[in-house]
Amino acid sequence: MQNKYDALKLDNQICFPLYACSKEIVRMYKPFLDDIDLTYTQYITMMVMWETEEINVKSLGERLYLDSGTLTPLLKKLETKGYVVRNRSKTDERNLLVTLTDKGRELKKKAICIPEKMAGCVHLTRDEAFELYRLLHKVLSAAEDEKNG
Amino acid sequence: MQNKYDALKLDNQICFPLYACSKEIVRMYKPFLDDIDLTYTQYITMMVMWETEEINVKSLGERLYLDSGTLTPLLKKLETKGYVVRNRSKTDERNLLVTLTDKGRELKKKAICIPEKMAGCVHLTRDEAFELYRLLHKVLSAAEDEKNG
DNA sequence: TAAAATTAAATTGTATGCAATTTGTTTTCG
DNA sequence: CGAAAACAAATTGCATACAATTTAATTTTA
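The joint structure predicted for all components is written out below.
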């Protein structure tokens, strides 16, 4: 680098393209998600629900990197839409169990076309997508380690 | 993939690790940014200001992928902190010029240590960081193209 | 076993982030 | 020229995000 301040240039950061890319990807999803009346955060939440059928808020938060401050209102909205129900666990009332409904399962059929449409928007080769995936997960692992000690 | 719904699994998406990674990186910046009393968004804004000294809101927004709805209150905060001043352009009053102050320039000296500290948190090799950078910019270019037609 | 510690959600407060609309200014063009 | 179109910010409304605190339930431990 030419001088000691070059490190502070936006173009020399790795954080910034990550931040920008994440937002742009979410923006590209929007028209597809509008079709099924979900926001991006609601969509990734439903993806977990489609996989697990039932999960408590804490586990859901660990999966999505979100806390109860974000999830509580979001899950109430998904409940209002009829895609999940929220009930306290019988065995441990501290836990709130989020359960997929039939209507929520139905939504999966409408959502099935979205990953394909999005893949068409991100112009990476198969190898590039895989390498990007690997690198992002490596950074995520480092972040996890740093978080846990 | 085993069945047609596998594409809807969170682990098979490229968008999700991107979204999670972005948030985790911002989280890792927080302690360093707390030291100089900036949020992440304020930090990337100041990075542009340190580079350009003066810029209007529209150009700043194009650089940061943010719109006036986000930038207007943020710039007012940075002005309150004394790091920038906001004035309408004499030649075209539609434009609001954001200008770095001496105090804003001083802040750069305190911020100089941050990129190094962050590099230590993201455990990628030089080559991996470069490849990640390249792939993110490729996705950003695709997003730009899609946006502009 | 009862107080202390831990845990899980919910709540509160602050800061984005963005779509859509409004306001004020400038440019275009009939 | 002067109305219409284009443009730049600001504003409004809604949806995250997350830190910090509170509330309620469970587990630990003295």
